[in-house]
Amino acid sequence: MRHGIFALGILLLLCSSCREKRTMWSVQGQALGTVYEILYLGEADTALPRQADSLLRHYNALFSVFDSASWISRLNRNETDSLPEDLEKVLLRSLTLCRLTQGSFDITAAPLINAWGFGPEAAEKPDSAR
To answer: Region 27-31: what's the mean pLDDT?
Structure first.
């Protein structure tokens, strides 16, 4: 039995080496205040870079605090009273998580994040009083 499994393994290995070699492809860009890279193994997919870019542009337009024209930036400045459905869903889920974690997950932490230099605003290392 062990020899049969070993022979089957060798056969599969030999057959797989006969197939066309797959290539590693990379799609890169910027979104949400950072850079991204998507690596995939296979044939070149000319639609993938466009699809990834389109999806990340959509999310950037909704959620990026690094983009002053994004919906979340406009909401933070009280410049809108309506929200796209995707943003509303994320905000409602975030509020639920805030309640479930008793405030450990807090979407209102931007002032603290900015104070330590991790947000879009200049860092202002807080003193003990702040």
So the answer is: 85
